[in-house]
Amino acid sequence: MRVRTTSTQRTYRYVRLALIGATVLVGVAVGIELVAGASLPSISAAYYGPAGPVFVGGLTAIALALLALSGRSVEQALLDIAAVLALAVAYIPTTVAAGACEPVLRCVPPDVRATVVNNGAAVASMVLLGAVAAAIIALVQRTASRGVGATIGVIVSLTVAGVAWALVSPESFLARAHEVAAVAFFVLIAAVAAIAAWRPHAIGRRGVLLRRMYAASAVGILSTLVLIVVGLLSGVARSGFPVVLVGESVALALFGVFWVVQTAELWNEPDPRLRE
Fold first, then answer.
1. Domain annotation covers residue 37
2. Is the pLDDT at 1 greater than 50, yes or no?
3. Do 82 and 189 meet the contact criterion of CB atoms below 8 Å apart?
4. Is residue 229 in some structural domain?
5. What pLDDT score was predicted for residue 205?
6. From CA 11, how far away is CA 95, in angstroms rounded?
7. Listed residue (12, 244, 214) closest to 106, CA to CA
8. CB within 8 Å of 90: residues ≥ 6 apart
9. Would 118 be classed as within a structural domain?
10. Which residue range is the domain that position 85 belongs to?
């Protein structure tokens, strides 16, 4: 028997599948580079290598999917903010150790900075225009609310603060912005997973399993971030162990697991709404 679906439901499914696919795409591209013999200190360092275009493109696709996904109030707001942070992670590269970095040990190489400025300005402009468009659409559709206004306000504030940071202290911005955005992104995703674990589920074994998997994703992502910090501060990274690479890989895998589980749970949701 053919299962009937609505156009909205099919789009909802495809966006979720695209998000999972983009996550796998980034993981595979970085994995191929590692197998080929590249010595990557982190997944983010793939920006500078053969996997660079897939890294940037994959994170851009993830950001767009997060913006497009339906959600439930606070979850939707967190995903919208996480989408902007994903763009920052994609287009503001991490620092690398290079001869051109003297007198510092790590930096964004000079030959890459023009690209960062160009891409960063374009992304910031798009985000601000998108925020204005979102506000207008909310007013026209009569879906404006304090939550919508707060979300738009946070996104605009983060973008303006990032631009101001880059203008006032470009060296500090290039040295720290990527890591700040990456940590904030995973913290928000962990928060969304925690909310998913907390909200009501179907009674029975399936509901218990879903709750546990969401909770495991949230705790796993936060624990991974803590272990990365501990590894860096304790000197484990200086011993040659790729602390950041392993930590980012685990966090990315847990990010993918969360979306696979939630996609399976909500696959048959008949008519997803943007907000309840």
1. yes
2. no
3. yes
4. yes
5. 83
6. 38
7. 244
8. 55, 56, 59, 60, 63
9. no
10. 7-95+176-266
